[in-house]
Specification:
By secondary structure, the protein is mainly alpha-helical. The protein contains 9 helices and no strands. The chain has one domain: AhpD-like (Up-down Bundle).
Length: about 190
């Protein structure tokens, strides 16, 4: 049971977004820019960064949700996501994505843990400054999203199948145009 009465039975961040549409709008828009908008990193790769950071933060809802979204958008989705979450150093990833995940992991622990050597390693692996920037921002944002979800003790389904449809919906609709949530900018019910 959530720490506060959300007046809905939606799981995880979905319940929080419906509870407070005024804050939902910028949170959904940020997720849209970071995970859906045009980028040289694929949508699946960016979802994988979000899932990885959420796994490090032990946020089951966000990890499962973004893992499902990554699975829906990556070749060998489920296998690649599982191997990455278990051990990104051994997963069949490009050197660039492996280096970016290393940066994301350091951001998750502490932003100042990222060193010039980490950034240089990502560049040597082929990451652009924009890709490094966006990886750091995805990692930082997901630390916030994870703490929002877990800090209010939102309801989290334990069945992995509960996340698959949401992952497919996110892959199709993104975060701003979701049909299972109120439209962005909707007024609070009260």
């Amino acid at each position: 049971m959530a720490h506060i009465e959300l007046h809905n039975d939606l799981p995880g961040i979905r319940g929080l977004l419906v509870y407070r549409p005024e804050t939902a709008k910028p949170l959904r828009e940020l997720a849209e820019v970071l995970l859906v908008a045009e980028s040289t990193l694929s949508r699946g790769e960016r979802e994988l960064v979000a899932a990885y950071v959420s796994r490090l933060n032990r946020c089951h809802f966000c990890c499962a949700s973004h893992s499902a979204a990554a699975e829906a958008q990556l070749e060998d989705g489920a296998g690649l996501v599982a191997s990455t979450l278990d051990d990104p150093g051994a997963a069949p990833l490009s050197a660039k994505l492996r280096a970016l995940l290393a940066v994301a992991g350091k951001v998750q622990r502490e932003g100042r843990a990222v060193t010039a050597a980490d950034v240089e390693q990502a560049r040597r692996a082929g990451a652009s400054d924009l890709e490094i920037h966006d990886t750091v921002l995805i990692a930082a944002a997901f630390c916030m999203y994870n703490r929002y979800v877990d800090g209010l003790a939102t309801w989290t389904p334990s069945d992995p199948n509960a996340y698959r449809e949401t992952g497919r919906r996110v892959a199709k609709e993104g975060y701003v145009n979701r049909t299972d949530l109120p439209p962005v900018g909707a007024a609070s019910a009260g």
